Amino acid sequence: EDQVTQSPEALRLQEGESSSLNCSYTVSGLRGLFWYRQDPGKGPEFLFTLYSAGEEKEKERLKATLTKKESFLHITAPKPEDSATYLCAVQSWSGGGADGLTFGKGTHLIIQP
Amino acid sequence: DGGITQSPKYLFRKEGQNVTLSCEQNLNHDAMYWYRQDPGQGLRLIYYSQIVNDFQKGDIAEGYSVSREKKESFPLTVTSAQKNPTAFYLCASSLRTGGNEQYFGPGTRLTVT
């Protein structure tokens, strides 16, 4: 069974204070790891897909990295508008199982001005 | 603009009533999905469909039903057999299944009393 654990559950930073969010996963064979941003009361917004260990993707102040056991979402010099819940999800080659994503519970990020 | 629409945004029903949630996409995506989100939990997969007239159960399909008569539409019916129907329901689509990112709609918040 695929499992995704995100830490910390909540993180409060000052504007400009860089940090990282962690996503640890257990899958039978990774098909893809996905990062999403979710604002309160809205649907998740797609950020990145990572497929293999060593892969990195960047978008503005966000950078996602992937190892064989975990992924990090690095936030550099965050701004208040980066405040949101960040979700990590995996899809595996479990074969015969659901083709959907297995999600972690998310990290609630607050950036204070 | 291409995207996924869900209606209504808020839905209220009495216990014992069936209710149908709408999901439409104009992205020309083959695959569509329904997830449920509860406070403090990750998104959980209810049903998914890879092509028209075909769909598969996800992890928590009991008490739900779906249809996929058109590529653009994937409605979800919450039946009276669902024991805890109050939740935030999210529809998603992807170009194909397998390693492709999923794009989410804005969600429908269902409250059953």
Describe the structure.
The complex is a heterodimer of chains A (113) and B (113). With 113 residues, chain A is an all-beta fold. Helix content of chain A is 0%, strand content 58%. Chain A is built from no helices and eleven strands. In chain A, strands 2, 4, 5, 9, 10 and 11 form a six-stranded mixed sheet that branches. In chain A, strands 1-3-8-7-6 form a five-stranded antiparallel sheet, with no helix packed on it. Chain A is globular and about 45 Å long. The mean pLDDT of chain A is 94. Chain B has 113 residues and is mostly beta strands. Chain B has strands at residues 4-7, 10-13, 19-25, 31-37, 44-51, 54-57, 64-66, 76-78, 87-94, 103-104, 108-112. In chain B, the strands form two sheets. In chain B, strands 2, 4, 5, 6, 9, 10 and 11 form a seven-stranded mixed sheet that branches. In chain B, strands 1-3-8-7 form a four-stranded antiparallel sheet, with no helix packed on it. In chain B, a hairpin with a 6-residue loop joins strand 4 and strand 5. The model of chain B has no long low-confidence stretch (mean pLDDT 94). Classes of the chains: A mainly beta (113), B mainly beta (113). Chains A and B meet through strand 4, strand 5, strand 9 and strand 10 of A and strand 4, strand 5 and strand 10 of B.
